[in-house]
Amino acid sequence: MTNRKVCIVGVGKIAHDQHVPAIDKSPDWELAATVSRAGSVEGIPIFRDFDVMLEERPDIEMVSLCMPPMARYQYARKALLAGRHVMMEKPPGQTLAEVQALVGMAKEKGVALFATWHSRMGKGVAGAKAALAGKEVTRGQITWKEDVRQWHPGQEWVFEPGGMGVFDPGINALSILTEILPEPVHVTRAELDFPEGRYTAIAARIEFSRGVSMDLDWLQKGDPSWDIEVETAEGTRVVLKFGGNELWVDGEKMPGAEIEEYPALYARMAELVDQRAIDVDLSPMTHVADAMTLGKRLTVEPFSF
Ligand code: NAP
């Protein structure tokens, strides 16, 4: 069977780092075109205008939206209305309501829509969920610290409205938390550090129900810390390290899934397309919105790249 054709829209860091290699290895997909204002992928046709691509390439059945969240809605809407399946980088949009509107459009057109959370495909995440199933969470600690200059070099959009600031990586942790916990939690308190003159936070401390706390910092030097620990009333202790890719249960290192995060996302998208199904879970983004609604805003040192 020939592979299904996909077009990447927004050829930046994540498209080059993850999407292009994942599609190259995929048994389901073939990269048939890109839409890019300035970039390119060697050997792949480029369109500078999204409308032209939709018009001229009816053979491309899926678009993979890899731009920052602020522009996602306008591209997703056009693609859905043109009857294309849509896969979206995280976070799926800049507001909850605009993503809900996309779900309505996908239902109406009978096409697949996937709001991806790549960290949920971390190799230890399914095992962590299984280890916690049916148990009562009594404590949790999320530590998500990295260097914004390393992971978002020069990307001013992360400090623009809708860019989410430190929640851009923090939402990855929340996508894991909302996947593995047997019962949902909710934000009860938050403090957000905004660099003077910037629109989004660079650090945050958040408390949730069931004793879960989260510490986010975008100024950590050296190796990132992407760790989640959860304890239960039954005495189980689950530790996820390296962004969900290494699992320890009660002090023992557990085997993980074979498949890497982005290949797993493209495999899942192929299933969704087969079923014309929608996979959009907004619970990680709901926690971010709640932290912004409830959080005390503190002003800290100015930041520049
Ligand atoms: P990026 O390199 O700054 O931007 C990606 C590309 O999006 C740009 O190169 C540009 O592509 C396009 N773009 C930028 N602004 C746009 C706009 N206003 N309208 C239309 N297109 C626009 O960002 P990134 O790091 O790849 O991140 C993109 C998304 O992936 C974000 O949602 C981020 O959370 C997610 N993500 C990033 C990472 C990471 O390590 N950076 C990891 C996982 C997920 P063209 O020049 O081709 O038009």
Give a written overview of the molecule:
The protein has helices at residues 13-25, 50-56, 72-81, 96-109, 125-132, 148-151, 167-180, 261-275, 283-294; strands at 4-9, 29-35, 46-47, 62-65, 85-88, 113-115, 137-145, 187-195, 203-208, 212-217, 225-232, 237-241, 246-249, 252-254, 278-279, 296-300. The chain has 305 residues and is an alpha/beta fold. It has 2 domains: 4-115, Rossmann fold, CATH 3.40.50; 120-254 and 288-300, Dihydrodipicolinate Reductase, domain 2. The chain is globular and about 55 Å long. The protein starts with a strand and ends in a 5-residue tail after the last strand. The mean pLDDT is 97. NADP nicotinamide-adenine-dinucleotide phosphate (NAP) binds next to α1.
Number of domains: 2
By CATH, the topology of the largest domain is: Dihydrodipicolinate Reductase, domain 2
> How much helicity do the residues have?
25-40%
Gyration radius over CA: 19 Å
- The averaged pLDDT comes out at 97
Q: Runs with pLDDT <50, length 5+?
A: none
Bound molecules: NADP nicotinamide-adenine-dinucleotide phosphate
- What is the CATH homology-level superfamily of the largest domain? Dihydrodipicolinate Reductase, domain 2
- What is the N-to-C succession of helices and strands? EHEEHEHEHEHEHHEEEEEEEHEHE
Strand segment count: 16
EC number: 1.1.1.46
Pfam family, one: GFO_IDH_MocA
GO molecular function: L-arabinose 1-dehydrogenase (NAD+) activity; nucleotide binding
Keywords: Oxidoreductase
